[in-house]
Amino acid sequence: MSEIILVTGAAGQLGQRVIHHLIETYKVAPGNIVAATRSPEKLSELEKKGVVTRKADFDDAAGLEKAFAGVDRLLIISTDALDTPGKRLAQHKGAVAAAVKSGVKHIAYTSMPGPDNSLVTFAPDHLGSENAIKASGIAHTIIRDAWYHDNYLHGMPHNLQGGKWYSATGDGKISTISRDDCALAIAAALASGTSESATYTVTGTQSLNSRQIAAIVSDVAGKPLEVIDVTDEQLGQGMRGAGLPGFVADMLVSADANTRAGKFDIVTEDFTKLTGKQPQPLKDFFVEHKAALTA
């Protein structure tokens, strides 16, 4: 009997891609995959493929225990509860406790690079979640995903329209990776059948500063893009002025500060260790998504 793998957040972008790679890349039988989300009605397409669907609400501890019943390997994709301090960590701790009660044999978790030494506002959530998993006594795989290439598609089209990118990263470098490559690495870990505990930091093959990134964007888009150095305060004010919620602005400012401090300048070969492949370079990603970049 093959292992039963449950993926939380299965309706989200990362969860969908993890399940895609489990089935298509690693040939896991759909019937051995449980897709879980608080809104299972969103999973009808997966159900048609033979994937089992269950309701999993991170604010309902008893419900999580029920959802995790009979599961061998559990992937906890970190939740999006960032607007209330402490809420996400409480949700994750509840999921770990439910996994213990349900007899889950292995927990995988999506974290971030260097959460124990980070300026990013949500880093304590990830560190606390990692520690809760380690304290559970269950074998685990922690996958620390670098900043997504995809994140640039949110603000970069606007930057290109004005020809200016306001950044508080200074000369700091960051290594980024596509969301799909992260999903591929996570699926590889889930499908491996390992009983060992390990932590992987999944990054691109190089670190770049904002001017190097801007040059790639400009080259692909065929438009000039100048980086304008600003302070954390100026960046935060600009984001709030543009209508971003305060907690989102604070998060993005903290990410720039983390880059400036060199704490995102991490390059590993863990992606290749897990998948046997090379991650997609940033330029190739922008070429693939040129329509979104220049929208």
Automatic annotation (TrEMBL):
CDD domains: TMR_SDR_a (cd05269). This is SDR family oxidoreductase. It holds the Pfam family NmrA. PANTHER family: NMRA-LIKE DOMAIN-CONTAINING PROTEIN, QUINONE OXIDOREDUCTASE 2. The lineage of its organism: Bacteria, Pseudomonadati, Pseudomonadota, Alphaproteobacteria, Hyphomicrobiales. Residues 2-237 form the NmrA-like domain.
